[in-house]
Amino acid sequence: MSKILNSGGDEAEFAKPLYVPIKRRSFFMYAGATAGATALLLSGCDDDNVDPVTPAGTVSLGSGDVGVLNFAYALEQLEAAFYAKVKASPASDFSAAEKDYFSQVAAHEAIHRDFFKAAINRDAPGKIIQDLTPNFDSIDFTKRATVLSAARTFEDLGVQAYNGAGKYLKTAAYLVIAGQIVSVEARHAAYVRDLISNGSFADDSIIDPVTGLDKALEPVDVIAAAQGFIKEKLDATSVGK
Question: What is the architecture, at CATH level 2, of domain 2-235?
Fold first, then answer.
């Protein structure tokens, strides 16, 4: 990393904001710094990819880099809404440490959500998806076990989503930031898994025993898994195309 930063080239200068800790201020500094560099790339992708007609009442995530960013934004909206609710009304059998942990995660996910919203609005005006409405009717937020189970579902799905969609990003800067975000999601997933069952943070159900890598899912499969928690119908068929 030091070799890259000391190279003195334009690419190194462009990348510098990506090598600092991800905090709210850093995210918005990054979004502003990359706006000019990525706007033409994103608009160019839209010119080359014409999205198919989306059925009435369905939210299309779009194609190209915009589609991938909207895909991530949809998932971050879901996670941010979930953790905000957990923080506001923690389960009665949470420990003090667990309450503190979920407060921290709520802040992380809100930052991720706000970053994608700012980035899409700046780099691809008019292409952002709407604010989504979460559907948490199946989750009993008063019980620790059900909250942890839902958190594990969201975090595991989030890691698999970034792993599966990263290959579709054409803009290098966004691929780097996605890599930073997925590492945070993986930390969340590992912690929640150990709260449920100590030592399960990296078992074969989530790590491929052959490759030693986290599992990955295609965007359409991720949305299919998440759809039950979102009231609007989402269409991810053009993501990555």
Answer: Up-down Bundle (1.20)
